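note to self — DONT lose this again. spent like an hour looking for the file last time. sequence + predicted structure for the chain T wanted, 312 res
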Amino acid sequence: MRAVLGIDTSCYTTSCAAADEQFNLLSADRMLLPVKQGTCGLRQSEAVFIHLKQLPQVMEKTLTRVNADIAAICVSAKPVDGEESYMPVFQAGLSAAKSIAAAMRVPCYETTHQRGHLAAAQIGSSQMQGDFMALHLSGGTTDLLMVSGDTLEGLRSSLDLPAGQLIDRVGVRLGLPFPAGPSLEALAARGRATGRYGVSLSESGLHISGAEAQALRDVEEGVLNPEDIAAEVFDFISRSVLKLLSRVQEELGICTALVFGGVASSMLLRDLLIKRIESKRSPLDIRFGAPEYSGDNAAGVAMIGARQHFIR
């Protein structure tokens, strides 16, 4: 049996995975980057150094589980499509991937972090057919894309702040560990939202920083308890997502949307979106990937590599 080794070194996670020639995921392992309590992430130089330390550990864990010959390497070399796309953290994975491929005399394929997320969201379910919308919600990105085969076309984006940073900044201000998603979601489940933070959507995209400013004021002034602030944040994101998708659905007539990325792993957010769609009788057909493959991971990168290497 042959397999492709996938590598992803993001701002949050060191990860490796392997997929075989039948497109089965053989292993997927990851380590979060350690972040000091009370801070929102790391400087790029710090993250690169940590990746260099963690990558051998994660890779060894993956390879010990894979009873197959490594036929190729695939790595996320940059955040998104485009010549201007660059982030230092991905150079750690790219350098390792090229070195391993050269030593093993196997091909090294390059993809993007965003495409890896998109592929991971389709693991364990039937591949999306035809043209569809894809909304990438993460700590670094809030991008709405049109997917047509292998082509990704940008439709709308957040214009100031990604949805994941809203969650992390509010969560850290509330004293939660970074990344704050799971902890803030647990708080939100015990809170009540009233739609306190208004959605701002223009022709160009979403504005999220206004909701952040209001939420941080609420934390500092103590006008709401932490549970209600958390609930308001998730309520705001769900209303923003639905308004964005509905606007584009009306413009383009495409109803199917895949919501993916770390923020989309939240079961609370998924439930809020589904309930709103049902209550509004919206024609939107929103789908989600498996939660375990929604956060940063190399599973989709390995799948991309397997399809590129084994489909000739």
